[in-house]
Amino acid sequence: MSAAVAERPISDRNRQENMSMEVREQRKRRTMRLGKYKILDRVASGGMGTIYHGIDGESGREYALKVLTAELAENPTTLERFAREADAASRLRHPNIVSVYKRGKKDGTHYIVMEYVDGIDLHRFVNGAGPMQTDEVIEVLIQAARALAHAHANDIVHRDIKPSNFILTRHNGHRVVKLTDFGLAVDRSDPNESHLTKPGTTIGTVDYMAPEQAKGRNLTDSRSDIYALGCTAYFMLTGQAPFPEGSIPEKLYKHVHVQPVDPRELNPSIPDDMITVLGRMMEKLPENRYQSMEELLADLEQMQKARQGQGLDIFAMLTAKETVAPARSLPFQHLHTAIEEDDSDLAPIPPPIWLILAGAVAFVAVIGLVLMVWWQ
């Protein structure tokens, strides 16, 4: 009498195989090293490479390690831009900028050592919580503008301002916004910088790209970052980019020639003074925008002062563990603040109708508590 052998369901086998792969990946990370840095976890992956959470085996300090992919390391232009990113960003020391400490090469692997910050990026936060209320948008914009003012004062134009390049975190009990990723930045003090960006090349992220960047004429300056920060504010207030629909060429055309939808159609609570500031940030012509981050800051700080104590803090209860995806799919989820510095050597378009209709002062609408809360 033969015994029947029950075959394990395919779904169970797949589940076990996936678990085994995850265990192997975890074991690999536990034994992975990059010079004196022990790799603890993979934080994020992108077109340029991978960011890891690492610890200095000598000092015990935690860092973020940005590792360039092997394929890109074979491209001399990409390799030069990677090095320039580190060298330019390492000049910036500001509480609202993720510090870059050094760059290095180990066994053919090129990497950048950065500050390790614990938080959630702005894009993921808004996608989870929905549009932010005006008070919180103003606070984020003030800290972002301070970071960019510092970069611009050091001749650095970021050129890739967007929600995912801002991290919401806390440090010593204070609420902090951190600007990161200077991979597309241009150093205006470097006479050799221009050869890295050929005429006609479009640099930046299409949803947040200034019209002069969209034209590919290499005419970007600090006012391009102001436009992109305006697009980021639009996203915070409405939950979507100014031009969310269309192909890449269509979006580029819209940034140059089309006015976005009145953000109050998407979020009726936005007050008129916020509309006025937003409209000026997003002017199509650079000469019609704020001419500096300091000029923008003056208006934002005046708005904040007028609103003190009037709004809800929608971030009061947010913790990264409760609201975000696993580390392997979330940029900077597990980055911890390490303020200490590494001692190592550093190898003519009409204004939109929604702006015309905006008055100078309006009521402040208090939005109900949303899905997630941050900072208390």
Task: Jot down its keywords.
globular, 15% strand, 376 residues, six-stranded antiparallel beta sheet, disordered N terminus, Transferase(Phosphotransferase), domain 1, Phosphorylase Kinase, domain 1, alpha+beta, 12 helices
Please explain how this structure is put together.
This protein is an alpha+beta fold and 376 residues long. Helix 5 packs antiparallel against helix 7, helix 7 packs antiparallel against helix 9 and helix 9 runs antiparallel to helix 10. The chain has 12 helices and 11 strands. A hairpin with a 3-residue loop joins strand 2 (37-45) and strand 3. The strands form 3 sheets. Strands 1-2-3-4-6-5 form a 6-stranded antiparallel β-sheet. It folds into 2 domains: 16-114, Phosphorylase Kinase, domain 1, CATH 3.30.200; 120-323 and 348-356, Transferase(Phosphotransferase), domain 1 (Orthogonal Bundle), CATH 1.10.510.10.
